[in-house]
Amino acid sequence: MRPSMILSISFSIRLGFVLLAVLIGLAAGAGPNHAADDKASGAQSRLKIAVFPVFNLSATPAHLKYIRQQMIDILEADGEILIDDQRLEDAFANHRIRYIGGLDPSAALAIEQETGADAVFITSLEHYSDVVPPKIALTARLVTTGHRIRILWMDGAGLAGDDSPGLLDLGMIENPDTLMRIAIQRIMTSFAEFRSTGRAPVDAAAPQGKHRPKVIFRSPVMDPAMSYAVAVMPFFNLSERKFAGDIMALHFVRQLLANENWRVIEPGVVRQALLKGRVIMRDGISLADAGSISGLLAADLILSGKVMDYQDFQGMAAKPKVVFSAEIFEKNSREVVWAAQSHNRGDDGVFFFDWGRVNTAYVMASEMVQLAVEEMLEAE
Questions:
Q1: Are 33 and 103 in contact (CB under 8 A)?
Q2: pTM assigned to the model
Q3: pLDDT tens across 183-205, in order?
Q4: Which residues lie closer than 8 Å to 123 by C-beta, 6 or more apart?
Q5: Which class is domain 35-197?
Q6: How far apart are CA 156 and CA 203, in angstroms?
Q7: For residue 57, which of 237, 297, 324, 194 has the smallest C-alpha distance?
Q8: Which member of 27, 97, 149, 171 has the lowest number of beta carbons within 10 Å of its beta carbon?
Q9: What SS3 class is residue 89?
Q10: Where are the domains of the chain?
């Protein structure tokens, strides 16, 4: 055999091995991306978590660093991998990240690349009062970083010192720090259960029927069984309570997350789209703005509304009050496909010994929104 033929055969064999290796590599790359799946599920995976500073929606001075440190201590005790505070602060400074109430696309990429975090832990303090009986309301959520921003888990707690006074008021909690620790522990217990099972625990107590919407409408255009991407706008605030519109939006985000068919867009992403689209909600969001925002967010549904009242009064005889309306705009039909109106006071339906009384606007609003969403998603 001629030397030229031997060289040709040898080259062909080597080329064949190279092509085979390339094909094997492509086949492996085309398979399931387990690392991405672990990050998306958040359960039983080794996520690196960056704990954001607490976002204060209470409009009152509060021990924000204390709240954050309590949460960090519990996360570390549970074996979570946390990003060092200095690395997080450097990322904030280097990329000029100022907003800590949510995660937008640019911040999500910057934090992933700068710190290596797979997710951020975002906490909002919605109410804080140290007047006896004290009141606390907190909401927290876990949001993935990088290109695929997704809310993995969300829960909250609203407590008042006189929720369970018991005989001779022996169960009364007068120390706001004690009440805060209880609220934090409830949230972190929920998070720990999510990390071990993939699901947040369901509240044992069903919402009170008196908190159902007073008026509700749903168009046959909207099919609750379909998969939708839904964006929740900050509600237009007509109440005297500062940040009530943002708080009400968080209630809807939390309750909508319970429906596995719907993908709820992270509020930080919604906020950036509103800024980018220069949408100014003078009296709520218009249909034209809803259409443009749905395009920017690739959202099928836009939920918006108004808060007429959201009050947590102080003192033993204080009765919270919540009044709101909400509606959903559907992108394809370009019409409102669902609407509801709700209003309640803490002592509605209470006749004997304060049985059934609600002491915080957070708990009442949470039940009102939960029942509104349940009726929204009911099969015909």
A1: no
A2: 0.86
A3: 999 999 999 999 998 877 666 56
A4: 52, 54, 55, 67, 68, 71, 138, 139, 140
A5: alpha beta
A6: 11
A7: 237
A8: 27
A9: helix
A10: 35-197, 209-377
